[in-house]
Amino acid sequence: MKKVIFFDVQDYEVEFLRSACGGRFEFELIKEPLNDLSDLTGSRKEAEIISCFTTSRVSSEVLAHFGNLKLIALRSVGFNHIDTDFCKSHGIYVENTPNYGNMTVAEFALALLFDVTRKVTNSYNDLQKSVINPHKTIGVEIFGKTIGIVGLGAIGAEMARLANGIGMKILGFDIKERKDLKEKYHVQYTDFETLVKNSDFISLHSPLTKDNYHIFNQEIFEMMKPSAFIINTARGELIDTQALYNALIDKKIAGAGLDVLESEEILTAPEYLIDIGRMTPQSLQKTVLNNRLLQLDNVIVTPHIAYDTHEAINRILNTTVENIFAFCEGKIQNNVY
Question: Is residue 127 located within the same domain as residue 86?
Fold first, then answer.
């Protein structure tokens, strides 16, 4: 019987996983992410299949301790938190859960856009303190403005549909143009710099690759309108955090709505608080900047929850166990490379 270990397990996932996996294979549910080797003791190292979320950081050092590993079943679309080069060279398949949250994430990106432009959270926080200041809460209208969507895959396409529905003009940047998005939602494809210079709002929906790491840097922020807002529900590493902070402080841009950050796991994972020595100088610097972002009035930050709806979670879990069941029957599906 194959052994499967699930990491990053939330309380709401336990019942489903126990019901789905019981009797099919030996399995173990671990709440902690797979960020180090502290939980890899005894028979755990013999697992043939592991499953994790984006809060795990599965490096080659971690992977080297699994002697029988054949499959990583991701409960996410993104896979930049996995050392896929190691997996390729060691015959380990990496399967993701595509299309689980196209609408879910797009809706959340739009919610962040409304929140940061109309200062919803700020107004609520002030009201809790019995502070009412209409001048402080002046916002901007969305209708008729231009949104630039970077990455027009499944989630970006849903964002285009929503933006079109509320009367926004849409600029798009992607390596491949889709005729249906041009016809249905009036997406105008353009080059990256043109999008940056002409957008009132920019929403990121690209996967993280070696080519687009820090695609939003100081030079790009200099090109944006001073009245522009940036929304990121994709990956934190698409944005150079230092450059973003500088742009916000220097009023090069108007604000940001962020569901993802560089080194975001340090803000939420208790093991980093227990053992600060685990931080690298680079991650410590990012963490300081992230905390400074949290203090700015023109920034909304949420803890990587754009995917977090009942519907999306059900799709994630169903696809994950389907991937595992198929793999056990010798079928490979949703492999990321």
Answer: no
Q: What is the spatial distance between Cα 208 and Cα 81, in angstroms, rounded to a whole number?
A: 10
Do 157 and 75 fall within a single domain? no
Task: Mark whether 88 and 126 lie in a shared domain.
Answer: no
Please give the pLDDT value at position 194.
98
- Strand-pairing partners, residue 50, are 5, 72
Asked if pLDDT for residue 288 goes beyond 60, the answer is yes
| Catalytic annotation, pick one of 75, 81, 304, 315 | 304
SS3 272: helix
Hunting for tokens 């896979």 — which residue is that?
79
- Mapped onto helix, strand or coil, the DSSP state of residue 148 is strand
Instruction: Specify whether 264 is catalytic.
Output: yes
Q: What angle do CA 67, 69, 71 make, to 5 degrees?
A: 170
Q: For residue 80, what is the domain's CATH number?
A: 3.40.50.720
User: Which candidate in 235, 237, 262, 265 is catalytic?
Assistant: 235
Q: How many distinct structural domains can be found in the chain? A: 2
Q: Each residue of 75-120: pLDDT tens digit?
A: 999 899 999 999 999 999 999 999 999 999 999 999 999 999 999 9
pLDDT in tens, 21-32: 988 889 999 998
304 is catalytic: yes
Cα–Cα distance, 231 to 149 (Å, whole number): 10
From the list 95, 262, 264, 265, the catalytic residue is: 264
Give the pLDDT confidence of 110-124 residue by residue, as tens digits. Answer: 999 999 999 999 999
Structure tokens at 237: 């590493």
DSSP string of 81-128? Answer: TB-HHHHHHTT-EEE--TTSSHHHHHHHHHHHHHHHHHTHHHHHHHHH
Q: Tokens standing for 60?
A: 């080659």
Is 235 a known active-site residue?
yes
Q: How far apart are the first and last CA of the chain?
A: 27
Count the alpha carbons within 13 Å of 42 in the hemisphere toward its beta carbon. 1
